[in-house]
Amino acid sequence: MNTEQSDNRFITLLLASQSRVYRFLFTLVPRREDVEDLFQQTCLTLWQERAKFDPEKGLFASWACAIAQNHVRNFRRREATRQALLSEEVAELLLATREAGGRFSEECHQALQHCLNQLPPHQRTLVEESYREGALKSTAAAAGCSANALYKSLRRIRAILHDCMLRVLAEGSTS
Amino acid sequence: MNADQAARLRDWADDYVAGALGPAEREALERELLASEEVRRFFVSYLELHAGLAWQFRGFECELPDLREVKPTRSSTSRRWRWSLSSAAAVLAVAAAVWLWPRGAPREPGADLGPVFAVVRETLRGRWADGRDARVSESVGRGSWRLQSGLISLAGADGVELLVEGPAIAEWLGAQHIRLTSGTVVVRMPEGGSGFVVETARMRVTDLGTEFGVSVSPSGDERVQVYRGRVRAEAAASGEVQELKAGSALRCSAEGELAPAAFVEDRFIRRMPRTTPATPGGPLYNRSVLESVAVIRATHEVSVDGRLTEWNRGTFFKSACEPPYATTYFVEGGMMYDAAHLYVAAHVGDPEPMRNASRDGFHFAGGSVIVRLATDRRLGWPLKGIGRPFRPQNPSPELLADSTNERVTSLILWHDATSGRASLGLQHSFELRPPAAAPIGWQGAFQKDADGLGYTLEYAIPWRLLHCESDPPRPGDVMGALWTVHWSDAEGRICFGQLTDVTNQNPPASPTFSPANYFLSGPHWGRAVFQSEAAPK
Question: Which residue among B29, B92, B99 sits closest to A4, beta carbon to beta carbon?
Fold first, then answer.
């Protein structure tokens, strides 16, 4: 495979795995802004280190998540004084839970998609706009309600989604 | 785990994600997480929910970074990393740009050089509007892109696959979000995936775990059809929402109303054909050098049989695709008129002649000749009208009047392979409005070449159908006109290329139009010059 083919292959793999990397980061770092920063740093490192990826040695997504984890470690060192972060011990345990059986994260993701599809349109629209806008105030203003009321609605909807996810995970199927 | 503990953990998780978890709550949360795997699974699954929603609905401002630009610098006003091309990073940037940027899909002038959203996985004579062949593995990023002809398969984020049929104009708005301005696209999500959005001028279609097609015809007819799973369609104007199941379809009217439509299995191309075309592939397009076509006065009754016995072929113009396809793909066209009719004749070089099996709204794609003609002499030449997608948001009354003048007519001429008959499609104004009723009173005939490598068409169309029966063109009139020929695959479905001619050879410098879109730009149309004398045979 020449360099061009190899680079093209890299882009294809990255496109297919970026959601997994993003969600992986979200488990380890709380704030969305930090996740976005780390995600972009990870993508850059993946690109710079692309020649080191050996498909014989494992999945691209696993390699990408390992690089993402290195960035998280650096982040934790930089942000050690921030109270918002969970301790390293707890973070490691959460990671182990996430990776248990190798499929928990993916099963959660599929369950979420299934449950999202069950939401009534108005609830789905509210979730979509809130996460897309990233700012409750503007979404609330557009919806003609207070940010506090919208926040409560979102919490309720997330709880509904989460209950549904847990049910699907327990049943082991999204069919 | 009881309900109180579940609610408490969710509250803590929400605060954690919002960066608002206090020290006391954090310690309490850590104690519970350390104590129980069940709590950890609960907490992680809730974080997965947050992560999944954040990923799925990410907006413009936080996409995959443009990998050509390598040095992150912190903004003083924001915690967000900004990506800038610095001299220190020039080596890598140049190396990346060599393969990422020049090979990407063509973008609108001034379009942001954004991130990569998809790569071309397969192509069947796919060709971008700037004349380049679509290439396997080339990247498609932010900004409008135009597929002029052929069929391409795009692999996007999280395993989504898009099958795009040219001609199409689309734009990636996010990793899971495209805007389709015209053309057809079939979206296929991987098992368990959902949430891809196709936005059109009048609809927003959200997939709920499925395979579905969306089409926007040149006349603005919008349809969605579901093959697997479900989709949600929302009318932009009214906010009306409908959920569609597999085997159902709907269309959105010009007024923005959603209405059920017939499910037609083969309305969309769902799979990349595996057969190799029998004829040599290659880009089919031309460089227009003709500005005017003579419309000859008919002095004898014209018998419409496709043999052109009443025509003087010496008055025909000829236009061909670029070499090496010029001898295979070409058109020789002529026009005549009398007080009652417009006559059109053409001999088209086409190795797959008269195969058209296309679908409503896309009949041109299966092999056709389109003659566009203005018949209102007040419009003058060059025409000024512009199609809606390219008009300014607040056009002047004059521009709007010219753009919506119903005496600008597109005549779509094709041979319907299913019925074996000549067909005629009409569209009026630059809005490409279809007539209220199917046209009657016209005649058309096709003859296949003896060697099977082309066809001849002949039509007689009453001026009534061009809305000018009381004031038809007269000798000496100069009217806007444009000719387009489309070629297709052997199945008569996939547009393989086109030729556009009879065009203004000194078009306005701005805005820039691809010849494939001249039909929506009156200033680019050429002239039809109505002759006073009949040409000797």
Answer: B99
